[in-house]
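Title: Request for sanity check on At1g61320/AtMIF1 LRR domain-containing protein prediction

Description:
We are preparing a figure and want to confirm that the structure record we downloaded matches what your pipeline produces today. Could someone re-run it with the sequence below and paste the raw structure tokens into this thread? We only need the token string, no images.
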Amino acid sequence: MRLKHLVVRCMDNPGFNLEIDSSSLSSFKVDGNSVKISVSSMSSIDEATVFRSRYYPYVQNFDTRTWIRNLAHVKKFGVNSWFSQFLAREYEVNNNGWKIFENLKVFAWFGPLGKECDLIALIDFLVHCPSLEKIEIDFRFSFWEEAGEHRPPFALERPFVENSGDGQPTVGFLDNVKKIIIHHFFGYKSEIEFIKHLMQKAVVLETLSLTYHRLEFNPESFSRGFTSCPPKELVQEVIFSLSTASSNVHISFHHTYHKLGF
């Protein structure tokens, strides 16, 4: 029997080493910061997901650059916020845009964006993926949160640090992206900025499907920093007013409503 799918979760033990020798591996998912993982061959992998709590540029046991180079051939790539932090640092330190994902067709993003420089670096990465057709975004803050009516998602708006100047311009367009799907959208500034950049770049976009989760907290929660999401009508108006590069895009706006702490 050959190993085809591998999932590694919660491996944050600095003393744990995982060595994988499998030329038949087709999908790979890892969620952890400190574990040292080495894979002898990644050429057979079509789908890869790498989740970390944040990007640690000085952690030596997770060679980020080598991992990304070895995964450049994948067709589906899923990451969370550490990846935009890594890209932004690469622009700042090495002037490297990582324009090597030529086969990537589906890009999946999970979590918030805290800085405009991270967002711009991520958009620049995407416009240099010539085969990209679909982008899927989930703005939940925790990978382990379960989606579903029985457990409403938790969201607390974090500051969005904007660039002091005009920022770093991105050159190019999302030439083949036809579909963008957004889950757990809370209407926060960082999320709207992300969507705005995507719509301005996706020249052949056909579908933007967005699910808005409005959270309303009780008055006691406000003192702890919680803020209710804006009304659906206001958020919907903002989304439909965004400029688009595509003249044929259809925006599908769905919403759910949760009261928390009442």
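Thanks, this matches our download. The chain has two domains: 1-81, 105-262.
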